[in-house]
Amino acid sequence: MSDFIEHCLGRVLALQVRLYACQARLADCTDTEALHDLRIALRQLRSLLRPLRGLPAVDALEQGAAVLGRLSGPLRDREVLVAELTRLGLVHLAPADEAQRAAGYVAIASSGELADLMLLLDGWPANWREAARQGQLNDVDKRIRRRLRRQQRQLARALRDPAHDRHRLRLLIKRVRYAAETYPAQSRLSKAVQLRLKRAQSALGDWHDHLQWLAQADALASLGPCRAIWLQALLTAEGRADDALLALYGDLPNAG
């Protein structure tokens, strides 16, 4: 196999080791960063696999990571909300207590979704090597370059759309940025562009968080005391996001 194909294999194996470690930490219920680290590993796995879609064993593995990401998302959202309430000195308003969060960690650690993903990862090395032996990975570098270029053009078009949707832009920016981190040579985006993508993602993430919290404040009377603070922060985040998006206009390939 080529060095690049071996490199991809090695990265998947390293992420599997990290996922096993996160699973053990979640089951122990004492590590407040375990869920966050699990989701980072899942995101890195999906960023590695997304440009390889259509190749043997890739689609099932990428889908398995996506399923576990969706399962763990609500609990991570609650963690972020608790952190915000703690920052405001209002942690007593949190809609879930420590026992509920611990139960959530154990449920994810013992979930069928995580077990299924681990089985897929166990089979990955043999499937990947067999695909290489059959010549199915001969143009993998070209495939990655082409797909990353397509992602970048998609983002460029969305940025120039006068009716652009911040939710969609947030998703597109995350994909382009994480792909550039995963495949720097193939993405051809400079460090300066990646930094501007990171700033835009941060601003849009802040905006998205406050939008979610306001929706919860509308649904839960207990969060009412936070509403005015979050509304002001949302407006500030919108301005930051718009400025960060404007800074990206000249950074991406021609959208045509």
> Treating each run of at least 4 consecutive H or I residues as one helix, how many helices?
10
H/E topology pattern? HHHHHHHHHH
Compute the gyration radius: what is it? 20 Å
- Measured as a percent range, the helix fraction is over 70%
Strand content: under 5%
How many β-strand stretches? 0
Averaged pLDDT, please?
Answer: 93
- Our measurement of the CA-to-CA distance between the termini, rounded to an integer number of angstroms, reads 36 Å
Poorly predicted parts:
none
CATH architecture of the largest domain: Up-down Bundle
CATH topology (level 3) name of the largest domain: Four Helix Bundle (Hemerythrin (Met), subunit A)
Outline type: flat
Structural class: mainly alpha
How many structural domains does the protein architecture include?
2
Major sheet characteristics: none
**Which CATH C-level class of the largest domain is it?**
Mainly Alpha
Protein name: CHAD domain-containing protein
Domain CHAD: 1-250
